[in-house]
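Shipment paperwork, digital attachment
Item: protein structure file
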Amino acid sequence: MNTESKYPYEDIVTPLLFGEIWRNIPDFEGSFQVSNLGRVKSLDRTVSHSRCGTQFVKGRILKQNIKRHYNNFKNDFAYILQVAICFENKRHDLIVRRLVFYVFNGWKLTQKFDGMIISSDYDGLNCRLDNLKFCSTAEHLRMLIQTNRTEFTKKRPNKENIKPTFRLWKPVSRCDVSGNLIETYPCIAHAANKFECYEKGISLSIRNKTIYRGFKWRLAPREFFDDLISQYPAIKPARNRKPKPPFVEVDEKK
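Attachment content:
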């Protein structure tokens, strides 16, 4: 192995690394395998060919791609390793850490769970099996808050002046548990911005008639816009046209 390589996936030459265990990938048995160190390889196999009928393909360690996800709150990137495998003339893009965890824990690749696979050391390029763990959505959000990679509350910057679209807006009322009206907002976006909460939470509260953040939310009549429209006069901005050059009379006798 190259001594300059920091991660096992960077070595695509050495057939077997120290302590490495290879296992078949479900639904791709006999063609592709994954190791507990996060490497993926293809096996010697015979594939169909349009002209020759069949063609022998020699196995090799596959090169992995790095996907970068920008974090606006932290102003940096999160890295995810991805590998592309071609099976029966169809390309499959697989996330390596999910592939390693699923295969060595006996999970199906098509099986869905309410959570995600993360790296224990928060290094997306370290896809060793002993560095991976499963966490629920709530645990993942808690981890992001602890590592200061997201805000604790949902806030919408630059939402003080939302462009009025009264034709599409649906006014929303915030009521107490007894149903008494407290405040009415032009739309869910205004309510979420002023109340500093999630728009989806308000929407689900209206749809399911449940309590969200200690209040009942319901749609208000559109008569609420009658007084609000007057506060947003339809002022058409003036066009910045280039001034015309002054007219100069030309003396034709000269």
